[in-house]
Amino acid sequence: MQKPSLPKGTRDFGPIQMARRNFILDTIKDTFRLFGYNQIETPAMENLSTLTGKYGDEGDQLLFKILNSGDYLKKVSAEDLENGSAATLTKVSEKGLRYDLTVPFARFVVMNRNELTFPFKRFQIQPVWRADRPQKGRYREFYQCDADVVGTDSLVCEAEIILMIRRVFKHLGIEDYTIKVNNRKILTGISEVIGEAGKEGPLCVAIDKLDKIGWEKVQEELEQRGFQNDSVQKLNPLVQYNGGEAGKLEFLKSFLSSSEVGLEGVKELEETFEILSQMGEGLDHVELDMVLARGLSYYTGAIFEVKVNNVSIGSVSGGGRYDNLTGVFGLQGVSGVGFSFGVDRLYDVMEELSIFPKESVQGTQLLLTYFDHKGYGYALSLLSQLRANGIIAEIYPDQAKMKKQLDYASKNGVPFVGICGDQEIADKTIALKELETGNQESLNLEELTKKLG
Amino acid sequence: MQKPSLPKGTRDFGPIQMARRNFILDTIKDTFRLFGYNQIETPAMENLSTLTGKYGDEGDQLLFKILNSGDYLKKVSAEDLENGSAATLTKVSEKGLRYDLTVPFARFVVMNRNELTFPFKRFQIQPVWRADRPQKGRYREFYQCDADVVGTDSLVCEAEIILMIRRVFKHLGIEDYTIKVNNRKILTGISEVIGEAGKEGPLCVAIDKLDKIGWEKVQEELEQRGFQNDSVQKLNPLVQYNGGEAGKLEFLKSFLSSSEVGLEGVKELEETFEILSQMGEGLDHVELDMVLARGLSYYTGAIFEVKVNNVSIGSVSGGGRYDNLTGVFGLQGVSGVGFSFGVDRLYDVMEELSIFPKESVQGTQLLLTYFDHKGYGYALSLLSQLRANGIIAEIYPDQAKMKKQLDYASKNGVPFVGICGDQEIADKTIALKELETGNQESLNLEELTKKLG
Predict the structure, then answer these.
(1) Which of A86, B22, B389, B396 has its C-alpha lying 20 to 30 A from A413's C-alpha?
(2) HEC string of B151-203?
(3) In terms of pTM, does the model score above 0.90?
(4) Are A303 and A183 in contact, with CB atoms under 8 Å apart?
């Protein structure tokens, strides 16, 4: 007899995990909806022609491919075998599992462009699959949770992303976190003013290590990457800036004074903060990180990254503005801005901080228990009325010893049991026992509804 | 430039479809939870060893298989090529997409049997995939929505299935439907008393056609299937029974008087109805269908099927009791009872009947609009307060003509727009316009919250 197992890097979610995941997801969904985003879903499978070439060579390797149905080898010849897997792929597989939610969203926008009203605000919460090496905290199936607005350049969207992130964290009870913001144009400007235009990529990779390896080592790395020594020296004021948050915009204006695009980036950030202020909102949790880059190649404007402080997991959310979401499918000019919550990471953070509210895993509120057939009949007669009053109630289905019934309640985290004995039947009441405290009181249906409703 | 398309038999769900699907799913989830069921999720991929051999030869054909990562052809030889796809499958694929939710659930129970408390009540709402020929109403990716209790024989579970189905239909607004119930033991009993023990399978397939082809043709078919003529004649009282619903149990007791198992089936149904009565519930919508079979091989006790009357789609839900969910994985004695809602079919039924409530697709309640930069600033100042009051509000993000802003609201089904003009700024009010009626009134923030909250 086979012993069943799970594929590597995949997980089951049992009742408690699911309840906690739903607590996170419901919080995020409510927030997206409050800000006028609508949910869409796309299929798990996409044509490989939609997916390949969008995530780089490594991404193509990590795509899960689906074997064609029926006689999948019929087009494969002995010669193909010799040419190897990559050359033969198109003959055995036409479909793959989605790798992220962005490419399917771009496809959706292109295919539905005539029906959609722009600006189009959508959110999407679905699993994605990557044939990555499984390791702690990295799975082959995991949920992404994206919100994007496409078809507008308005910086109101950037400001609202900050507000949505803050609302989600507030409702999840995560207090110590930082929303790092930057702008691609600032990065472009920095590389311009130091005389290394176009090299913001390697620049940011190196500077990102500042905290870990120090300025000496970062300079060495930059020179190894082909930066001129005097360019590197021009970074000194940036690296040594210690004027605090409030002065950063002024510092950048001066540092980037010779770069038109750099100043534009500063202006966009300034305007985003101004919109927040017009909305009566401050800059709590917001930190301007002048070298934040995050998958730089995608972004053309704002860049976001959210870090929870003092936990082992780092970034739990990120995003930014892009100029051309759908260009790869032949539709130009669809710009947008979006961000993504890492649900699995938020889960791990909340677990590490032990802040899942007890109510978030509350299932059944009340288990009706009984000693004998008469009590069972009485319990049945109450059950439908309790549920009609909105109380999540169960009856222990088998006639069993009271201890077994109480065990069931306690193992399932049911907070209350209602005991139906002869006295209760006579009085038309129920003996309500709170398992945690052992407190017991006699209540009629109306009182019970008031207490648990 | 490639023109993107969707894989055959798969679908995108846009905002309106998703809102309607969520209306159905939320109704079902609320009901499951009210009855004490907890949600679980299992991975999209299962090991092929878990999936194959569970759905018959046809099912094995219809499994979507996932190509092994990396050099998937490395174990395939020229000889394998000659032996064909089926013989080579294990060398190129180890995983498949789930085909239903029952086999993954059985695997879950086996793998977690030491942590679970029985009876275990779970529900599961996830997509499944079948490489079926796509056609109207049949998709390659579709959602299933299952609830099961395992680890108890109590008929309370059967009674509660009927109650859950009725609650879901009531909340969806579907009024004309029938919950057909039967019991496998009754079918076994019928084949016994007519002298064709063990042949309930072909018996039911043939009798199921009674309405379509009439008793003459059914008799012919039964004889073709090897039933003795005098066995077939013994079915006459069953086929010609016209005593109405109330008399069916008495009729069956008499018809099955010589079959112990048959009488047991009648007793189980009787007890299920008795439990409903003890719960203060009637038999509304319930019909005893003495030959209902539905995938007979799985079921050992109660059998359910729900049909919506007077629509082109037939069955939208079904289920039953089974003796041995997990036996195939080596864990004996886990009996249970469960049922499944066909979400796609419920969607189609509600669309055909035009009964989706308008509120079910309600997204944004209020769009703030403005004429100029001053109005835009004023609108921004209101926006966060409106949302803090729980009102789903948006601002049109770009400074655009009023007509464009109103168009956006109307195309997105936003019922109210709030106009922020000079007068409103001076009065600290908003001109609230209801798009459907054209009615307009001047309200302050408090009045607005009261009206839309």
Answers:
(1) B22
(2) CCCCCHHHHHHHHHHHHHHHHHCCCCEEEEEEEHHHHHHHHHHCCCCCCHHHH
(3) yes
(4) yes
Q: Which residue of B has its CA nearest to A365?
A: B36
Calculate how close chain B gets to A274, using CA atoms only, in Å: 10
> What gap in Å lies between CA A130 and CA A98, rounded to an integer?
8
| Residue B83, CB-side half-sphere exposure with 13 Å CA sphere | 11
CA B206 to chain A, closest CA, distance in angstroms equals 32
Structure tokens at B446: 């408090």
Nearest residue of chain A to residue B276 (CA atoms): A380
From the list A349, A295, A307, A308, the residue with the least C-alpha distance to A102 is A295
State the DSSP H helix or E strand holding residue A445, giving kind and residue range, or none if neither: helix A445-452
Characterize B414-444 residue by residue with b for buried, 16 or more Cβ atoms within 10 angstroms of its Cβ, and e for exposed: bbbbbbbbeebbeeebbbbbeeeeeeeeebe
Closest CA to B159 of A387, A422, A43: A387
| Residues of the binding site of B for L-histidine | 100-102, 130, 144, 148, 294, 298-299
- The ipTM estimated for the assembled molecules is 0.94
- The whole-angstrom distance between B263's CA and the closest CA on chain A is 22
Phi and psi torsions of B178, nearest 5°: -130, 130
* Sheet-wide strand order for A141-150: A38-39, A120-129, A141-150, A336-342, A315-322, A302-308, A177-183, A286-288
Render pLDDT for B214-270 as a digit per residue (tens, 0 to 9).
999 999 999 999 999 999 999 999 999 988 888 999 999 999 999 999 999 999 999
Among B6, B88, B141, the residue with its CB nearest the CB of A73 is B88
Q: Whole-angstrom Cα distance, residue A204 to residue B330?
A: 56
Interface with chain B: mutation pick from A13, A42, A67, highest number of B CBs within 10 Å:
A67
**Set of chain B residues whose Cβ sits within 8 Å of the Cβ of A124:** none
Look up residue B147 and give its two tokens.
Answer: 């609830």
Inter-chain contacts counted by CB atoms under 8 A, chains A and B: 278
| Local structure of A302: helix, strand or coil | strand
Where do the domains of chain B lie, and which CATH numbers do they carry?
Answer: 15-63+99-353 (3.30.930.10), 363-452 (3.40.50.800)
CA distance B36 to chain A (A): 5
Q: Do A385 and B41 make contact, defined as CB atoms within 8 angstroms?
A: no
pLDDT at B1: 58
Residue A261 pLDDT exceeds 90: yes
Which among A311, A295, A306, A303 has a CA at the least distance from the CA of A341? A306
Q: Which phi and psi angles does B318 have, rounded to 5°? A: -165, 165
Do A260 and A185 touch, CB atoms closer than 8 A?
Answer: no
Q: Which chain B residues are Cβ-neighbours of A40 within 8 angstroms?
A: 12-15, 18
